[in-house]
Amino acid sequence: MASLTVWRFPTPEGAQDALEVLKDLQRQELITVRDGAVVSWPEGRKKPKTKQLTNLTGLGAIGGTFWGLLLGMIFFVPLLGMAVGAATGAVSGHFTHVGIDDEFIQEVREKVTPGTSALFLLTAHAVLDKVAPAFQGQHAELIQTNLSAEQEKLLRETFAEEE
Question: Which candidate among 3, 32, 90, 147 keeps its CA 20 to 30 Å from the CA of 102?
């Protein structure tokens, strides 16, 4: 079973700094990172900076389309308002089918705000009793949704990028 997890950090640099912890966990085979993105939101900015992870993921990465749509739904749609509301309904429906519901999106939207950062990860085979403590020293807060095998398959079919 795959998990889509969001680790929220209380500083704009926290998520980027946590990548070293993540690399170490992966080297120890305590987690398999399939794909991910870093969001950094410096204080005073209207919107966050986003960056897809490329150096931690291997085969099976979903690609930029998924992250662009998900991060857009969370951070940029509220800025655009009703003008794009109708179009986002269809995108929101795709996310719901793959286990990412409106409640998850709203929770992330409320917690990842100016002055914070977040690490978005699609992972598998996480040894939770080892992974969670590794991030404790970084004052991370975990927001998580689990994906069933069927939801992960649908996610890959929907958002996989052709080579």
Answer: 32
